[in-house]
Amino acid sequence: MIRHVALFRLKEDAPAGTRQALEEGLSLIAQTISEISNYEYGGDLGLREGNFDFGVVADFENAESFETYVNHPEHQAFLKKRLMPVLAERVSVQIEI
Predict the structure, then answer these.
(1) Is 28 helix (H, G, I), strand (E, B) or coil?
(2) Domain 2-96 has what CATH class?
(3) Distance CA 85, CA 42 (A)
């Protein structure tokens, strides 16, 4: 099983409602892409200074399922329309679990 973890730092001038818009888009992804085994996402709780603003944790049966997710039109539309306009920084890792 592959676990994908992505963290996002939003631009300081990101409009109000950005986190809600991200959550709505990710909800659509979770409902649309059947290769996702488990999908969790949300805004940082502010418990530690310097954290990223938003994160996604997604599990996939194998690397092929992960690649399908990455290239899926719904995921690509989310990146282009919802994430990239407000994104300052992104980091990610994929690990075997």
Answers:
(1) helix
(2) alpha beta
(3) 18
Distance CA 87, CA 12 (A): 9
pLDDT at 83: 98
Q: How many residues does the structure list for the chain?
A: 97
DSSP H or E segment with residue 70: helix 63-71
Give the mean pLDDT per block of 10 residues along the chain (97 residues): 98 96 97 98 97 98 98 98 98 98
Which tokens sit at 27?
């909800």
User: What's the confidence (pLDDT) of residue 48?
Assistant: 97
* The model's pTM: 0.93
Query: Which residue stretches of the chain are H helix?
Result: 18-32, 63-71, 73-78
Task: Please state the domain extents for the chain.
Answer: 2-96
